[in-house]
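Extended Data, record YfhO family protein
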Amino acid sequence: MSAMQPSLFLRQWQRWWPYLSITFVALLLLWRVVLGNIFLPLDIVAHLHPWRFSYERVAVNNPINSDLVTQIYPRRLVTNQILEQGALPLWNPTILTGTPLLADGQLAFFYPLSWLFVLLPVGYAFGIYTLLNVWLAGIGTFKFAQRMQLEPMPATLAAVGYMLSGFLLNWLHFPEFSAACAMLPWCFWAVLRACQSQRWHDWLLASLVLALPLVSQIQLAFYVYVGVGCLLLAQLLALPTWRLRFQQIGQFSSAIGLALGLSAVQLLPQIALSAQGQRLDIGSGLGSASSIMVWLLRLALPIVDGAARETASAWQPHLLQGIQPYAGIVSLALAGLAIWRSKQPGVRLFACLALGSFAVAIGTPLLQLLLWLVPPYRQFADHQRWFSLWGFAIALLAGFGLQRLQQPSNKPNRALWVQRGLLLLGLIGVAGWALQHIALFTVDSRYAQYSTMLRLALNPTSLAILGLSGLALVGLLIKRIPRRWSNLAVLLILLGDLLWYGGSYNTSIDPAIFQPTADQQASLAAEPALQDPAILYPPTRQINFLLSQPGVFRVFGADYQAMPTNVFSAFGLEDIRGYQSLYLAQYNRLTRLMDGKDYHKLGEGGNSLHAYFTMAYNQRRLLNMLNVEYLIFTPNSPNPELYQPLELVQRNDEGTIYRNPEVLPRAWMVYQTEVISDELAQLDRLAANDFDPAKQAIVAEPIPALGQAPSQTLTPTVSYEPNRALVQVETSAAGLLVLADAYTNDWQVSVDGQTAQLYRTNYALRGVWVDAGQHTVEFSYRPKSLIVGGWVSGLSLALILLGLALSWYKTRKAA
């Protein structure tokens, strides 16, 4: 019995060591999370207004990821607050006079791991969520690699290469991106498994997996579907008959249809919002020759063109730069070797995916071809996100390369010679283009420019990584070195390479880093913070003042640096500014009008994601209309003079807060309307100096007759619940009740319990006609797209479960 134990242990070790290795790598990447740190770049907060004036400055690890603390974290807090009140997070009232929340698609609300943000303290949930996604990315890659006939060590190398790939580490902090990246290899695995088995049971399971990237991040889901479509094509080419090919096409199409149906509860609201959203054509230009050259250099040295770190330790690169598309020297070399030596069809597939995705990501003419073939793709920003597919493909190719090195050499066939010829032509073409671009020995030579970049990026650690990677690759060729030791050396050097360049890109912080100044300590002692102690932003005097003010009102950071957009959301305060991936086009046009820009067109490029105001003092009437009661300025700002008249209500070393004495209430009555059907003409009328929103309103269609404006009117009272607004109004004459909240046709309104008509008022707000008397007006947000999508998703899930149950029943009956 005892003699059998080592053999049993060895078998179990051979089975489980790849999974243990992948788990170890995930823990090593996020070890600070395991120790209890918050996986958010909170160090940035100490440098933002108003915290920078009330807390001691701290060194910032990575200032690039500021969106995490100024957009992602506040949105998650808003979502949790709505869920705690027993409602779905459909509408965010805290930015942009209100905007759809779930339909934006950035919550990844229906992704299963997203419930960690509800079940755990939200700050700690970010780290645990990310850790699990990194682990899933590694396990999924390993499982798929094994399906592609890779042995455990090459499959493990592929898993480590993908879970630490440049793109994944670049976007690791963003929950929707880490979720989609985690599901990418599982989608490949599920489709390949179903193709190989030809069983409907496996195709039904594949549809469940294929739905997950769709409810995580729609742009990455598009890339996933391109990838699995190419995988299907490769499988079809390997089938012997057209009958089998058509059968597999039908099965795959059914799985895709069910996946789309499953995700309809997220997709349909997102599509509906896109139809009335501000995105038209974002970032569709070609990359410049210089930018393409830099991307090529960063294949071997990711911090080329980086900025100096504020405080770089010996364990960090001295330059800070996002590490996409870096895959590691070992991975890149082994991928090239796989293309050169391997006959496997999978190598050709992933070579095409890698080269194609890289070419689109860096802005070659292939991007223009894609935009022409798929016009809706123009709404996507940042085409560098194609590096997600590149990173996965290179990791798989590296696994193929490692396995090919350990197999006997075979005589190349014609297909391999063609493969090699294309590789050589490609390399010669890229080298020729690079030499032409550098323009050596000419007056336009760029040699000095790029050599300087390389000198700045190189340091002893970078050189050591290059040297050790070369030695590890040479070790693979020396037959006297035992295979397991040479493989282990390659794996460890790749791990160290990727962790050194990318491990410190993301930030984990102990919340105790915030040390208040003496003034702040005295202030908090005299007046305790009013905010929820669970909020990770430390308290400030300006926030404390605003939280103490009664009623409903909106605020406005009138200096560009004053209180970053979206941050007010964390405290339940409402800001007319906002930074949102997808929001209503009419609000984008309104902000352009108020800011003195050409409001006849939408914001262009990345600017369309930001609703900022830098010259809104030219449209004080419209600031009043949007219920802006408090304006916030940074210390010693000269801008309050531009917004007069204002009432100073707080001044300290954090800055100043002024009250707007001309502010209109959140809801008010008007008794004069102008019917203007054309939307741009409505904006022209809003821009006119003689338009007074306190007395008149613009509507797009005729409304019932209005009475004479009374000499005195009572201000309506407004209260809010999630996805709902309640207005109590009393008027002595029929009039139009205007609510200074964003209009969409998904808002329903009732007056005294009776359905009423909602009018789009003043181009972007809501209005409802009421007759004389006291009334209760209720606005409810009920997106039709969500209702339809919910039914479609429910029916799709029922079909899948029914199919799986029938399959299980038949299998059990046959047994």
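Summary. The chain has a mean pLDDT of 91.
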